[in-house]
Fold each of these.
Amino acid sequence: MDWTKILKEVDPETYETVQNELDRQRNGLEMIPSENFTSPAVLQAMGSILTNKYSEGYPGKRYYGGNQFIDVVEKLAIERAKKLFGVPHANVQPYSGSPANLAVHVAVCQPGDVTMGLELTHGGHLTHGWKTSATGQLWKSVQYHVKPDGYIDFDEVRKLAQENKPKLIWVGFTAYPREFPFEEFSKIADEVGAYLAADISHISGLVISGAHKSPVPYVHIVTTTTHKTLRGPRGAIIMVTQKGLDKDPELADKVDKAVFPGLQGGPHDHTTAGIAVALLEASKPEFKEYGQQIVRNAKSLAEELMNNGLKLVTNGTDTHLMLIDLTPFGKGNGVFIQDALETAGITLNKNTIPNDPSSPFYPSGVRLGTPALTTRGMKENEMKIIGKLISQVVHTAKDYHLPENKDERAEYLKKFREEIKNNGTVKSVREKVFELCKQFPLYPGLQ
Ligand SMILES: *Cc1c(COP(=O)(O)O)cnc(C)c1O
């Protein structure tokens, strides 16, 4: 039996859709900063028969029999995570980043306790207490902000912490282009006796490669997704630091209990295997080089965008991502720029900018980053080319503006899409993107 042809025979519709997505990934520039291309080895682990097993509990303490090999896999992932990040405890079972962050709340807070996180529209994450997330409904979240210059407002953070005495403070962002200020947060958390949790979902690959400072000396808990710069399968890890154990000797136990049985059932063992593989790959010298190159690429791209007349929040980046501030061209036009770039084969996302004059659904910025392109092997030279292409598309689409009257919006968007499809600049950029992608093949040999 040829295992590579089975899906095609059993379910041609699903197979074809997967192939279409593979073509899309191959023939476009993936610049959403939270995305990446995981390795063939990780893909193979994810597609393995480990998905068949139930293993509620933890290695050596399972509720089902037959877990001798699952224990080996989970212990591999745990030990590799501990060693790579330099922490005494790691839980690799959270299904993804959001459940991991919910588990941290459950571990250290009682319902109704006060927490603190950066507001979503200023670059925080939903699960740091935003009102539409359970983390903002079951706990009383006080949200802090960035200043008009895009940097964290520490006067506000300290004032809110002292006034509200939170039990848990989050430091960690989805759209913050500068180094995460763990040290400043640790002083404030220590002053008010709060648990400090660093959510390094976006930057964990940079932390491992030394391209970003590690939160471990400063915080009690670290959470990270495993599928962003870490380049593994979709999943998450919660870690407890020595500082965390010194504050609360029960902390590791509380975290484990919050994940299982608090919130989850059986762990996704095939994902655990994928995490183990990704962590092994991340321990190699090539990964260090990868993380450093992500940042070099981002800095080079940022410079090119600014040289071509675009404004960036904080005027640049220290990390893998940047935010283009589109307010010089009006407000609420992120959606037009996202769409025009997508038509040109460049995928990124509309995003609010600090103090956005519009709304989260029609924000005035776009967010983009370099992790996935760097995985494809692109370097500074390609970033210069791509920076120019992006700028050309932005300048050709910058005069589209959202009608104030809501009833006119659907019609206007339709007309915009039609015009963009036939726009000469967009068409020529699409061709150049296609050529560039061909020079950096993705998953060569995969059919
Ligand atoms: C992506 C992300 C998450 C959530 O991860 P999911 O796997 O999408 O649930 C949480 N926090 C931060 C900072 C993130 O960037």
Note: The first helix runs from residue 6 to 10.
Amino acid sequence: MKIYSLVTLGLTVCVQALSLDINDKDSICEAAAAVANGQWNYYEGLKYGGTVGMFTYPYYWWHAGEAFGGLLDFYTFCQPDNKTLFDLLFQGMYYQRGEGNNYIPANQSMTEGNDDQGVWGLAIMGAVERNFTDPEDVSWLELTQAIYNTMNSRWDPSTCGGGLRWQIFTWNSGYDYKNAISNGCLFHIAARLARYTGNITYAETANKVWDWMENDVKLIFEDTTPTGKKEMRIYDGTKIANNCGIITRTKWSYTYGVFMSGCAYMYNFTSKNGSSEESEKWLVRTNEILEASAFFFNNTIMTEMSCAPGNHCNNDQRSFRSLFSRGLALTAVMAPSTYDTIRPLIESSAQAAAQSCSGGTDGVTCGENWSADGWDTKFGLGEQMSALEVINGLLGSTYDVAPPYTSTNGGSSRSNPNAGLDTKIVTNRNILTIAQKDKAGAGVLTALLLLAIIGGSIWMVI
Ligand SMILES: *[C@@H]1O[C@H](CO)[C@@H](O)[C@H](O)[C@H]1NC(C)=O
Ligand SMILES: *[C@@H]1O[C@H](CO)[C@@H](O)[C@H](O)[C@H]1NC(C)=O
Ligand SMILES: *[C@@H]1O[C@H](CO)[C@@H](O)[C@H](O)[C@H]1NC(C)=O
Ligand SMILES: *[C@@H]1O[C@H](CO)[C@@H](O)[C@H](O)[C@H]1NC(C)=O
Ligand SMILES: *[C@@H]1O[C@H](CO)[C@@H](O)[C@H](O)[C@H]1NC(C)=O
Ligand SMILES: *[C@@H]1O[C@H](CO)[C@@H](O)[C@H](O)[C@H]1NC(C)=O
Ligand SMILES: *[C@@H]1O[C@H](CO)[C@@H](O)[C@H](O)[C@H]1NC(C)=O
Ligand SMILES: *[C@@H]1O[C@H](CO)[C@@H](O)[C@H](O)[C@H]1NC(C)=O
């Protein structure tokens, strides 16, 4: 893409900005479709010889999980009769499920952490809740339960009183770190499974994760600001050394989004018997996180505050607003009392995002700084995903579209509570054994493993 020549065409490009009427579903869907088309330009699965379910380098496997979650919502809200789109989503999400039907494909073992598997889990849970057609051999619910079961089995009480490590595999850098987003994904998926299935065991897990985060390691921390105001903080993570005593205090929008909406699901689930102390607890937490979600420039336009102002967001960070947007919309639906606060933030951010989607050769490439006038010359999968999901949020936060289904109300995905616990390829508890039939892949993997063990620094080799 030739940015510089386009910059000189600034005026022409700005004229082509996406039009968006936030009160008109057709207009919203048209804008979303344009952004989604821009997103598919990064899709490997449409390229000759490209891998189904993957996006182009430098985007990793986890980005694909993030992307499919937003595209699935777009399909559900805007184009449920589009068979081409259905096939793209179905094939991509199904293809990457891994040999053990648990979203731990062997050939991602050099990159995949608990948060990566978890972000795929958010997308597959979305398929369950949107009643997306099940594959024949394995259901989306079963796949989500496998993600949940394998993640939960990695709960690690041997250090810091519990929690998930960042990494699944010992050889990956970050195995000695326990981070908020990995634990947030387990918390969030557990909360959604509890509501969807009505099975209280999942809610107990959600409680376990929250309590560990807040009481054991204080990654969730209620601080007092200089003005005396209480503010909920959700920090990035902590190294296991020093009994998780040294905390990395960076705050990311997606972590807030994942925890906030998880709390809203817990609120919704525990309200089923009428209001109670338990549901009140979750509503308070939902509100506290929402109030502390200071990821809006001028309090109106969604901005990744820990990196955007310094202009140093990396490819991961440039995508975080997609999951934050999804979390905001789900929160507004699961805890309707938050709607009046959330709706204006989604509206102003969606409008700002749409007017930033005026760049590139296609004229609908989205920028990073939505507060800037028009396209800011930044581009990437993260920018497209973030814009798509905040525009999705205009629909997802309302009852114009069906709220996420449950097993007794609209959903049809088959349940298998023990999924993921009995596969031949056991990737629970950080053990990886390769099935015989997968010899070629296993050979490569073994070679890489050997390099990792001998060299100790596989990253230099790669
Ligand atoms: C991972 O493995 C699958 C199936 O074994 C293969 O088709 C795919 O190309 C591989 N993906 C990557 C990113 O290497
Ligand atoms: C259906 O989806 C495909 C893939 O996203 C898109 O190219 C096509 O324009 C869509 N069709 C309609 C009628 O919107
Ligand atoms: C609702 O109440 C029943 C009966 O007391 C109890 O078994 C169930 O766990 C409760 N459900 C929730 C979501 O609290
Ligand atoms: C900040 O937001 C207010 C509305 O809340 C708006 O009137 C004002 O123009 C905005 N300022 C900037 C610099 O965007
Ligand atoms: C985005 O653009 C606005 C308007 O030009 C500017 O005030 C702001 O500092 C920029 N924000 C970032 C994060 O670069
Ligand atoms: C729970 O969520 C549903 C949407 O699925 C909503 O209609 C309902 O009002 C929520 N329950 C409570 C107690 O807020
Ligand atoms: C969900 O999908 C099943 C199977 O395709 C279908 O029978 C059911 O009507 C769908 N539910 C809704 C609410 O559309
Ligand atoms: C509830 O979930 C737990 C944990 O996965 C499982 O062991 C149990 O069998 C489930 N109960 C029902 C009734 O499905």
Note: Strands lie at 177-179, 220-224, 230-234, 237-239, 247-248, 296-297, 301-302.
